[in-house]
Design goal:
Belongs to the tetrahydrofolate dehydrogenase/cyclohydrolase family. This protein is an alpha/beta fold. It contains nine helices and eleven strands. Strands 1-11-8-7-5-6 form a six-stranded parallel β-sheet. It has a three-stranded parallel β-sheet with strand order 3-2-4, with helices on both faces. The structure holds the ligand Nc1nc2c(c(=O)[nH]1)N[C@@H](CN(C=O)c1ccc(C(=O)N[C@@H](CCC(=O)O)C(=O)O)cc1)CN2. The ligand Nc1nc2c(c(=O)[nH]1)N[C@@H](CN(C=O)c1ccc(C(=O)N[C@@H](CCC(=O)O)C(=O)O)cc1)CN2 binds next to helix 2, strand 4, helix 6 and helix 9. The site of the ligand Nc1nc2c(c(=O)[nH]1)N[C@@H](CN(C=O)c1ccc(C(=O)N[C@@H](CCC(=O)O)C(=O)O)cc1)CN2 has 18 residues, from helix 2, strand 4, helix 6 and helix 9.
């Protein structure tokens, strides 16, 4: 068996053209969505991701506002910039690029985002709404994973899903998202304390690998026909992405998301979708 590809690039391109039409409709009603980004420090990976977010905005007609601060910025300075974005009507949603430098309390910063402008769905109020099953902006990578599965007709309802990794941007919120009544999956969240990862993975219809450990999921662990999504972003010695899925999984799995070209582009598309939806909500309330 050779797995079918869960092509995130193609799905993201389709979503972006749908969003461009919604942005045009908002502009006709006098509403221009605007995404703010806050980047602290000079991490090259984060700079690439933020550049990409501004390029994506331009492609669909979303205005963008960029706040770049040096790694030496204090927490108080970062919070001042957040207060400005919270008050700026041109900024309908914004994100703080993670990770932040160690000198800054990430929870304090994320907690200071106005929940109605939280384009990442990571503000504690919005994570709380996710726990309670109420509508709110959703974290981009988990939302992108669900959308990628849906667009490829991979059955989520009733599926046994193993998520490997309990991070706040992917693993934990993905577990909450997949166990909502609308998704209806059974989720096992694995992490460094999991006793027998291979046994857990072997029972899964869907595996989301977000451990950041190259090739942690190998063909011998995988149930034939399972859908595998690779969220791992380690780099090899040449700077190439080394995903969490070993290459041999292609011979056993039913679907595999490539890395790059799978979940990453969907994360970017879901950020745009959160921005557009927030602007649509604001326009409806006006
Ligand atoms: N505030 C946030 N910070 C971070 C998030 C997030 O959702 N919100 N997620 C990641 C980084 N990230 C977006 O910010 C992100 C990562 C990767 C990609 C992507 O498209 N990757 C490409 C490969 C690019 C490369 O070669 O490096 C792919 O998978 O095809 C987009 C967004 C952590 N921080």
């Amino acid at each position: 068996m050779t797995a079918q590809i869960l092509d995130g690039k193609a799905a993201a391109a389709a979503i972006k053209s749908e969003l461009a039409e919604r942005v045009a409709a908002l502009k006709e009603r006098g509403v221009t969505p605007g995404l703010g980004t806050v980047l602290v420090g000079e991490d090259p990976g984060s700079q690439i991701y933020v550049n990409g977010k501004h390029r994506d905005c331009a492609q669909v007609g979303i205005e963008s506002i960029r706040v770049d601060l040096p790694a030496t910025a204090t927490q108080a300075e970062v919070l001042d910039h957040l207060a400005e974005l919270n008050a700026d009507p041109a900024c309908t949603g914004y994100i703080v690029q993670l990770p932040l430098p160690k000198s800054i309390d990430e929870n304090a910063v994320i907690g200071a985002i106005d929940p109605t402008k939280d384009a990442d769905g990571l503000q504690p109020t919005n994570l709380g709404w996710l726990v309670l099953g109420r509508p709110a902006p959703l974290p981009c990578t988990p939302r992108g994973i669900v959308e990628l599965l849906r667009r490829n007709d991979v059955e989520i309802a009733g599926a046994n899903v193993v998520v490997v990794g309990r991070g706040v941007t992917v693993g934990r919120p993905l577990g909450l998202l997949l166990t909502r009544r609308t998704e209806n999956a059974t989720v096992t969240l694995c992490h460094t304390g999991t006793r027998d990862l291979a046994a857990e993975v072997s029972r899964a219809d869907i595996v989301v690998a977000a451990a950041g450990v190259p090739s942690i999921i190998t063909a011998d662990m995988v149930k034939p026909g399972a859908a595998l999504l690779d969220v791992g972003v380690s780099r090899d010695a040449d700077g190439k992405i080394a995903g969490d899925l070993a290459p041999d999984v292609m011979d056993v799995a039913g679907w595999v998301s490539p890395n790059p070209g799978g979940v990453g582009p969907m994360t970017r598309a879901m950020l745009l979708q959160n921005v557009v939806e927030a602007a649509e909500r604001a326009a409806a309330d006006a």
